[in-house]
TrEMBL record:
The keyword Zinc-finger does not apply. It comes from Brachybacterium halotolerans. Keywords: Repeat, Transferase. Residues 21-138, 169-281 form the Rhodanese domain. It comes from the Bacteria. This is Sulfurtransferase. The lineage of its organism: Bacteria, Bacillati, Actinomycetota, Actinomycetes, Micrococcales. Gene3D superfamilies: Rhodanese-like domain. InterPro entries: Rhodanese-like_dom, Rhodanese-like_dom_sf, TST/MPST-like. Pfam families: Rhodanese.
Amino acid sequence: MDSAPALPPVIDVDRFRALRAQPGVRVAEVRWALDGSKDRSTFLAGHVPGSVYVDLGADLAAAAKPEAGRHPLPDPADFAATLGAVGIGDGATVLALDDTDGSQASRLVWMLRALGVEAALLDGGLGAWTAAGGELSTEDPAPDAAVFTPRPWGTAVTATADEVEAAAGTEGSVVIDARAPERFRGETEPVDPRAGHVPGAINVPFAGNVGADGRFLDPRALRERFASAGVGETDEIIVYCGSGVTATHDLLALERAGFTGARLFPGSWSQWSADEGREVATGE
């Protein structure tokens, strides 16, 4: 990873509004749902004026394959081309949002921050924007192309399945499963080959990072949340979910809480559960 971004991972709507007006800042939006019910048309139904659309499945992931999971990280050159096509070039600051709890746009923000790009998630997403009096646009943006230099995904920000296996349940390390409790326990599995979780992992569901108002908990509350789940001050931290998307919500929450150096297991449960050689645990 390049030098850490100065911008915090999550910003409120007032800061978003102020930053949005500055030169060199690009607003990007994600619309995505596991069942495919959201896409570019959802974005065009109403978005922040001047923002660009980023497709999670096509732009923020490579093609699915069992050995890499449902949403592998894209090739650095492909990701750079995607960013350039929507007007995000070297030196740009990116503010991202979605129309839900941030768990889709967090993937874009984490990817950019992992590459050292100044990027932040709008707390509360599109709802926060409209609640603050922000207008919506239905225009289809046509941004000027930019040049984004490809940067590799490094070992400082990602972890392999072997590293997950070695870290889970080991003193000084913690592996976090960001999925819903019932999926962690193996009571249900709607999409991946086997139900359960990585043996030794702990469950910190991403949905608990936000309060009833749809906003992220404050840093102290988030820190207490992760600490009570078993995350230590100096632990090596690896996070996974179903396919490497909502895990990034936990990763941004960890950073907001002051934990540093946490890594993503990109293939997540979709990769782990497809490998019959990997053990699976169920229950708490």
